[in-house]
Design a protein that fits this description.
The chain is mainly beta. A hairpin with a 4-residue loop joins strand 18 (324-335) and strand 19. Strands 9, 10, 11, 12 and 13 form a five-stranded antiparallel sheet that branches. Strands 1-2-3-4 form a four-stranded antiparallel sheet. Strands 5-6-7-8 form a four-stranded antiparallel sheet, with no helix packed on it. The protein folds into two domains: 5-78, no CATH class; 96-365, Glycosyl hydrolase domain, family 43 (Tachylectin-2, Chain A, 5 Propeller). It has helices spanning 5-17, 26-46, 52-55, 63-78, and strands at 96-103, 106-116, 123-133, 139-147, 158-166, 169-176, 186-192, 200-201, 221-224, 230-234, 241-245, 252-253, 262-263, 271-278, 281-288, 297-303, 312-317, 324-335, 340-349, 359-365.
């Protein structure tokens, strides 16, 4: 059986970049990752898919364009050049879309990192990293705990990690491929024995791979209720669903009425759901506005049960023109030792010209006597050391 010209070129490029995979400097790692992304997208199109529909009618969505760029980048590496230098965020600076879990009086935070560019073929986030702290100030980082090499169905990106510990194992839920149509991607799940990984894809496919109730399967958050039930909240495109996970997180179980998904979308919801409990109440939070713009913000509701109804109380985190803009997609931390609460979120620095320029920040979260969340004061300093032990 003859090999097509495409697969000859595909195999040739993979063989040529293989020696560069052994190098660990930033520019080489960055360029190799982008070459991988380009030839994998070419392979997707070659197999009959059309990624142009995911991102609009942009020019150059064809095999020849992908492979021409991949060939040029590979040739540049072989000449000792870095064709993408200065074009992307530094790996590790894209410390966003985080989640956390506590163990041994340490806070383990999970975040996305990668090469976020301004053209279609460079919007590529291939890695989830991990940092750990005992005092919210000093951190130890593990940059690559899972990536697209482990998750074989990923061809574009992975983001919005949601971590939860169960029966001594750690389960990492993530969004993949910016799914717009069934079969393109969705919400995946991986497992590890330690917070810092390595994580292994436990399904080999997305857990949820279709749009239900108008909710794009992204931005998942897993919450354990007081009765032991594990719920997952998720959704983009201004719709949010709740579903129940089975015991090993490989599937869903129905609600009492037989339904697997229930829409719980509050007023003004856009994406980024988060749930926590305080004083027996369910605090449901989410992001509003567009993540690339200055008006991205966080709102919340309080309910008596995990499925709502969630009546919007108001915005508690928004831009401050003197500190930063576009503050959203957050997590909430509670230090049970002293009762303090914190909010971790990302925002655009003053003067940022790109929606992809985001920084993760931490500030205090306060409540009034009635349990309402007070407006968050964004700062440059963050928080003081607060030992968790």
């Amino acid at each position: 059986m003859s090999i097509s010209p495409f697969y000859r070129q595909y195999s040739d490029i993979r063989a040529r970049i293989a020696p560069f995979r052994l190098k660990t400097d930033y520019e080489t790692v960055k360029t190799v990752s982008i070459i991988d992304a380009l030839i994998n997208r070419a392979d997707t199109v070659n197999a009959g898919a059309d990624p142009s529909g995911r991102f609009g009618a942009l020019a150059g969505h064809n095999i020849e364009n992908y492979m021409t760029r991949a060939e040029a980048y590979t040739a540049a590496l072989e000449r000792g050049e870095f064709p993408l230098k200065g074009k992307f965020c530094e790996p590790g600076m894209s410390f966003i879309d985080h989640s956390f879990v506590e163990k041994d009086k340490k806070l383990h935070v999970f975040y996305i990192r990668g090469y976020v560019g301004f053209e279609w073929d460079t919007r590529f986030v291939d890695t989830i990293g991990h940092v750990v702290t005992e005092d919210l100030v000093n951190w130890t980082k593990h940059e690559r705990i899972i990536d697209n090499n482990e998750v074989k169905w990923l061809w574009q990106a992975m983001w919005a990690p949601a971590i939860i510990r169960k029966d001594g194992a750690y389960y990492l839920f993530f969004g993949g491929n910016d799914m717009h149509e069934k079969g393109e991607g969705g919400i995946g799940v991986a497992r590890a024995d330690r917070p810092e990984g390595p994580y292994k894809d436990i399904l080999g496919r997305p857990l949820i791979d279709e749009v239900i109730n108008g909710a794009q399967p992204i931005d998942q958050f897993v919450f354990q209720d007081v009765d032991g039930t594990y719920y997952m909240y998720y959704g983009g495109w201004r719709h949010c669903n709740i579903c129940k996970l089975n015991d090993d997180f490989t599937g869903l179980v129905p609600f009492e009425d037989g339904e697997y998904y229930k829409e719980v979308t509050p007023e003004n919801y856009v994406e980024g759901p988060f749930m926590f409990m305080k004083d027996g109440k369910y605090y449901f939070m989410w992001s509003e506005g567009g993540w690339t713009g200055p008006d991205y913000c966080v709102a919340y509701a309080i309910a008596d049960n995990p499925s709502g109804p969630f009546v919007r109380e108001g915005v508690i985190l928004k831009q401050d023109p003197e500190v930063g803009t576009g503050a959203g997609h957050h997590s909430v931390i509670h230090n049970e030792k002293n009762g303090k609460w914190y909010i971790v979120y990302h925002r655009h620095p003053i003067g940022a010209t790109s929606g992809n320029d985001r920084r993760t920040c931490i500030d205090e979260l306060r409540f009034d006597k009635e349990g309402n969340i007070l407006p968050v004061k964004m700062t440059f300093k963050g928080v003081k050391a607060d030992p968790l032990k």
